[in-house]
Amino acid sequence: GGAAPPSPVELPKWVLGSKRPPGPLGSPLGDLEEALGIDEAVLKETSCPMPLASIASYLAQLRLEGKDAQAEASVLRRATVSAAELPQVWAAGQLARIAGAQATAWGSSAAAGGQAANGPPWARLFQGALLLPDAALCGRIGAVPDLPNPLTVITDVPKLVAEMLKDIPQEDWDAKRLRQPQPVEGFPSLQRGPGGLLPTQTPRELAQNMLAAAILNRLCGNLLIWVACAARMAESGRQVTPEEKVAVAARAAVRTQTSDLQHAKAEEQAASRELSDFQASYSSDAARQHYLDSFVGWKSSARRQAERDLEAARKELQAAEEALTASRRKVQVLPWHSQWPSPVPQQAAERPIFAVRLTAKAPILRTIKDFLDAMENGLIDRSGGSGIVTKHNVEAAFVRHACDVLMLCSSEAGEAEAGKVYTHMPMPVTTSAGFLMPNSGREITAPRPHHDFQLKIRGQTFPFDVAFSALVEASGALGFAATGAHAGTSPTPWNPLEYEAHDVLWARETKECLDLVPVVAALSALVGDPGLILGILQPVVPPSEATAPLGAAGGAPLQAVF
């Protein structure tokens, strides 16, 4: 009753809608700003060191040059602009209010860097790389090749990285160079790319990030395989009950203890014969006599201990056999969930389990947690000169940023490349704030927060930086993507990664989170497939462009747990 009202959340000024009343159709910015929801004047007041402008000003400039609004907007549909160059995430229905609904009838959107989509949606994790590299950011870096199974870090990673970088001169693998933006055909001076921003990562680092994302996605897919195999075994009636497992383990224990007892008896007999032979020789060596007496006593004690262990194992076996017999007399009641078909398609059981190992003779690793634990501990393989994997530091945090998969910019035509000044046009995916701007009748919109689980590995052998989030460029699929290789995972001065102190995870929290990541990724892949029925639940209707991607529903609980 007496609580103070909550303080308003302070947002960057440029995220709010225009505060000036909408102008008449044909004015430089009025109707366009209303449609696209970014205030040109407020945007220019930001403290970003790079020149910024709104896409509304660009379209208004085209209009001032005498181009018809409806005809110009229809270029978005008629021009040879692939969905990989200009996704449908920023005009949607708002621009249709200006030029008509048919002007924005593009169909489904796709990734800014292309989408590696083969097979049903639930099987995306088996592909490894969910996204192809964005040429505007990665240049001539190739896609991730097919991963060997098992993958050996010390030998396979350098070969795969070299394969991805084969079209780039080797002297540029570790150099950060400016990349010229790609022109968007049909739109004068409009381009996609960093435009004057020096990359934060080298081509080798980008390739390692992409390779690591593919490896982690494949390890997440192992969970689907294990669940499918367990469901197939349960449906075939070959599922082993807990009582059977205990009985099998008890029988193995009895066999082991029996073998140990026989070995202990043989050693005791050999020690006794040696003592008898020494006594028959009538030797006067007192030290030898004392040693043999102690040795025989030790072997006799070992034999008696083996007899006690065997007796205990036989009792456990008897109890296990009685429990197994009693369980077989009971009426088997199937659990409620077994009466429904398995949520995981049976085709997943045919997939091979993906495995990773640090060296050729190192242990096989099949989960993300085991893989990162091994990278954190390192390995020195002294057998056959297999190599050394240095210790790596694992860092994890939950971050947020605006979702801008376009990275649009413009520059004056005719300028020399070295002296070009690029004006960047932030185009984040926006969401409705639910209330109107005073005295204008306009609804306020703001960039929709996009949350990532950022995972960084620092070391000498295989460092990488990846993000686990709902990938807008991959139709909202939840998975790992390389930081810096796609517009949606590349921070910029006007769209940095934000986080609070409590969003950075401690080592224990990171390990716990890595246990949940495969579960969330696998469940999201199943729920996000419109062709699958989960028990009594009907398939999920794919979300529209105006709503958050379905994979965001998987990342949010992951952050809420911690």
What does the model show?
- This protein is α+β, with helices and mostly antiparallel strands and 562 residues long.
- Helix 1 packs antiparallel against helix 3, helix 8 packs across helix 9 and helix 10 runs antiparallel to helix 11.
- It is elongated.
- The two termini are 31 Å apart.
- The N terminus is likely disordered.
Main features:
562 residues, alpha+beta, 14 helices, 14 strands
Summarize the model shown.
By secondary structure, the chain is of the alpha+beta class.
Global Rg = 33 Å
| Low-confidence spans | 1-37, 72-117
Order of helices and strands: HHHHHHHEHEEHHHEHEEEEEEEEEEHH
Distance between the termini: 31 Å
Q: Give the total of beta strands.
A: 14
Write the SSE topology.
Blueprint: H1 30-36, H2 40-44, H3 55-64, H4 69-78, H5 92-99, H6 124-127, H7 135-138, E1 151-152, H8 153-164, E2 182-183, E3 190-192, H9 203-235, H10 242-280, H11 286-329, E4 356-357, H12 368-377, E5 379-381, E6 387-389, E7 393-402, E8 408-410, E9 423-425, E10 430-437, E11 442-447, E12 449-458, E13 464-471, E14 477-482, H13 507-527, H14 552-561
Parallel strand pairs: 1-4
Antiparallel strand pairs: 2-3, 3-8, 5-6, 7-12, 8-9, 10-11, 12-13, 13-14
Helix pairs in contact: 1-3, 1-5, 8-9, 9-13, 10-11, 13-14
